[in-house]
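Limitations
The structure tokens in this dataset are predictions for the assembled complex, not deposited experimental models. Users should treat interface geometry with appropriate caution, especially where small molecules or nucleic acid strands are included. An illustrative entry is reproduced here so readers can see what is and is not provided.
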Amino acid sequence: DTAVSQTPKYLVTQMGNDKSIKCEQNLGHDTMYWYKQDSKKFLKIMFSYNNKELIINETVPNRFSPKSPDKAHLNLHINSLELGDSAVYFCASSQDSWITSTDTQYFGPGTRLTVL
Amino acid sequence: GEDVEQSLFLSVREGDSSVINCTYTDSSSTYLYWYKQEPGAGLQLLTYIFSNMDMKQDQRLTVLLNKKDKHLSLRIADTQTGDSAIYFCAESKNQAGTALIFGKGTTLSVSS
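Predicted assembly:
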């Protein structure tokens, strides 16, 4: 009955490879997000999607491409992985605030990506 | 610009109260949040406060908001060793798809 789930939990790969991280939420939320947490634990938004439409696209390299096949899923594909991509990636979801008065974000367990 | 500041470390003894402080710069923020991250785990929502409130209490947690000074605090009463974690303050404009702006997190260490 996990609310926001991510796969895989750990991902170890070589530089130059292409990899994907998947996220699913069963909360019926309309908005999903990807955040990156660096080695100093700093959390920064990467993307957000509302009803499958891209809302936020922060200054993230083009090698990162989010894909939202439906409202419940937001996947992150990364091309040509670099050492600096090593981080923990968190998916989150929220309901529109006109429905619930607050757009509280609920986070997945994170995917720890290590690029060798 | 948007910025959220927190002190990086806090060390307390079991049974004492912990107070974690946060300052933010964006006066248009409508909700302020506290998240907890245990080692190797995800972000757990602890509590949040609407910007027109001064205080919110939830069991051992008390959130105080001084909107004039843009200062937010989280008080944990009777701190336990299980409270040891990183605590993140975050602000939100409460619009669909807008990002949470996080502080760098305060590492709370509780000794027995």
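Some entries come with short summary sentences. For this one: DSSP finds one helix and eleven strands in chain A.
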